[in-house]
Amino acid sequence: MTDALALLAGRPLVVLTGAGLSTDSGIPDYRGPGSPARTPMTYQEFVSGPAARQRYWARSHLGWGRMRHAEPNAGHLALARVAPDLLITQNVDGLHERAGSPRLVALHGRIADVVCLDCRATSSRAALQARLADANPGFAERYADAAVRPDGDVDLDDTAGFVVPGCAECGDGVLKPDVVFFGENVPPARVERCYAAVDALADEGGALLVAGSSLTVMSGFRFVRRAAKAGTPVVIVNRGPTRGDELATYKLDMGCSAFLTELARAREPLSLVE
């Protein structure tokens, strides 16, 4: 860890975070050691018909009611102190925003936002949560012991009869969380902003830090490949192997909170000068 901290202490920095960073906040990850196999709903399945959306929103109604109470952990707070040139997060939980991180790109969106696929109006997940509760009295209490999953839903098969309201703006529009599902593409403007920050590292002698991501999904792994191709040092901190291990200058198999707390301390003199 000492060598990795020394590498990152005084350089311009871009940080890419994944679900492993939020486990200390009580949110399970997809691919960490011991995590059960999960098959998230794809965009194509979500738009296939009312039954799929009923299943999605029934599970989400239960899971989000618990996820929204999660608090930023020591890793989130440390990254806010580090204040990298750009923080790219694959997480949709909004904990980096609540911790106060500046210069942030939520690559896959935020689970706290909802979009209508018909009129494109956006609204808050909190408002929809209240509408779902009104339309399905007693549902949350009936399944209070359902296990929470990483994307803000729960493990639940019995979703028959769950009522899903339409868009409050246009009346019948299909509501979807404003996040990138599997089978969707990250909006190009977000990707370009991230590429620009990663490319700048090569000119400025910077480094890329990956914290809590297995890099299984290309949406995050592409930034590691781009940095490594440009000769930019890459440090990966994650429990278990990642897709980018062979490209890393240093790979640390450890929790994110401890490492990021030490990194914030190592960079504090730099922050004071700035």
Please describe what this structure looks like.
The structure is a single chain. This protein starts with a helix and ends with a helix. It is elongated and about 55 Å long. The model has no long low-confidence stretch (mean pLDDT 90). It contains 10 helices and 9 strands. The chain is an alpha/beta fold.
Key traits:
SIR2/SIRT2 'Small Domain'; single chain; alpha/beta; 274 residues
Give a quick summary of the entry:
This protein is an alpha/beta fold and 274 residues long. Helices cover 39% and strands 15% of the residues.
Write the layout of secondary structure elements.
Blueprint: H1 2-9, E1 13-17, H2 43-46, H3 50-67, H4 74-82, E2 86-89, H5 95-99, E3 104-106, E4 109-116, E5 122-124, H6 125-135, H7 139-142, E6 175-179, H8 188-204, E7 207-211, H9 218-229, E8 234-237, E9 250-252, H10 256-273
Parallel strand pairs: 1-2, 1-7, 2-3, 7-8, 8-9
Antiparallel strand pairs: 4-5, 4-6
* SSE class: alpha/beta
Count the beta strands: 9
Whole-number average pLDDT? 90
Radius of gyration: 19 Å
